[in-house]
Amino acid sequence: MNVRTIQKIEIFYYDLLSGEKEDVFELALKKNIRLHELLEDESLEGDLIYEVKFSDGTAKVISHPKGERNEEWQSFKLSKLAQHWSTIYEWLNKSDFKTKRPFKHFSTRYEAEEARSTPEDWEIIKRFSAEEFELRIGPNEEGLDEFQELEENMDLILEYEDKNSRQFISEGRYYDYLLEEWINPRESYPALEPFILDVTYGNFWDNKEVTQKSEK
């Protein structure tokens, strides 16, 4: 079994009509739309191209229609790839992917939301009435066990991926069905983290907004 480490991953959009190839995040910025809007835009007829370089000097190029979804998850293939890798990170590290906050068991949902929300979101949530909080978020007294959430999220992944297991992942190998390669998760995260942040959290937009503000 050859387990590879991802050194770099880039995603491009290839326009079938013009034959032009462009970084997918740069294209979203140019069109002033979010990534999911670009993926949903049926007027853009083209493919996503994944260019992946591995630490052993090998490379791989994979493509699929831009709007193609995963059958089991009914999510865009690009989104699924990022979401799966962030889930594996959280399961291995027992912490939130973006903030690196260690997971824990919360005795109330109110406590959980305060810890898990951004300061901006928390300012909104803490003004909810008890009824509105329960309607939008859930019963406060039930609390929240983030470790149970981790296991449930891993169950969803492993249900459809018979080559993978918790034991394999903890030992340092995960079979990525899109790349069709065994990947070392921990060693690959330096390359995967920017990709996941851009796809899942829209960091390419945040970085652009920061740049624009600094230019004023």
What would the keywords be for this entry?
9 strands, 216 residues, single chain, 4-stranded antiparallel β-sheet, alpha+beta
Distance between the termini: 53 Å
How much helicity do the residues have? 40-55%
Q: Sheet bearing the most strands, described?
A: 4 strands, antiparallel
Q: What percentage of amino acids are in beta strands?
A: 15-25%
How many helices? 10
Radius of gyration: 19 Å
Uncertain segments are 209-216
| Structural class assignment | alpha+beta
Strand order of the largest sheet: 3-2-4-5
Please report the total strand number as a whole number.
Answer: 9
Describe the global form.
Answer: globular
Order of helices and strands: EEEHHEEHEHHHEHHEEHH
Mean pLDDT: 90
Blueprint of the fold:
Blueprint: E1 3-4, E2 6-15, E3 21-23, H1 24-31, H2 35-40, E4 46-54, E5 59-65, H3 77-93, E6 105-106, H4 109-116, H5 119-125, H6 130-136, E7 144-145, H7 146-159, H8 166-171, E8 174-176, E9 181-183, H9 185-201, H10 203-215
Parallel strand pairs: 1-9
Antiparallel strand pairs: 2-3, 2-4, 4-5, 6-7, 8-9
Helix pairs in contact: 3-7, 3-9
